[in-house]
Design goal:
By secondary structure, this protein is mostly helical. It has a domain of 57 residues. It is built from four helices and no strands. The longest helix is centred in the last third of the chain and has 28 residues. The chain starts with 21 loop residues before the first helix and ends with a helix. The mean pLDDT is 74. This is Photosystem I subunit O.
């Protein structure tokens, strides 16, 4: 079922003159197709034109913007494994309980661990401690190398 509509074509716009006018082609004036209410007072800057400020190079980020330091990862991991391996929870360590729970959950592999399993508690606790150690390690190493303290 296709319906055909026929009507005269009309161009409706915000401009000051008709687009079909022959004087429009030769006129050097620009038609404003926007409203003054919507127009932003801030002009957009083209980053390609700002290349001259950096000696012709396009600089968006620092060269090593991630600042990956393997010392932070290594010392942060050791700094978390040492205290989490102390047998403080019923004669067992947090790392031992976490790795033991991984083994018990892998014993019935195709089925996931239930929400009431101790695995989730040890998983969240162990990783939270690791991320805190890594964060403080990053702050300490970068603060030391950049002379914050």
């Amino acid at each position: 079922m296709a319906a055909t509509f026929s009507s005269s074509s009309a161009v409706i716009g915000l401009g000051s003159s008709s687009l079909s006018s022959p004087s429009r082609i030769s006129s050097p004036k620009k038609i404003c197709l926007g409203s003054g209410f919507v127009k932003s007072p801030v002009t957009a800057r083209n980053p390609l034109r700002l290349a001259g400020t950096h000696g012709g190079k396009f600089m968006c980020f620092e060269r090593n913007w991630l600042r990956r330091d393997l010392n932070v990862i290594g010392f942060g991991l050791i700094g978390w494994l040492a205290p989490s391996s102390i047998p403080a929870i019923g004669g067992k360590s947090l790392s031992g309980l976490f790795f033991e729970s991984i083994g018990t959950e892998l014993a019935h592999f195709p089925t996931p661990p239930p929400l009431t399993s101790q695995f989730w508690l040890w998983l969240v606790t162990w990783h939270l401690g690791l991320f805190i150690c890594l964060t403080f390690g990053q702050i300490g190493f970068k603060g030391r190398t950049e002379d914050y303290f």
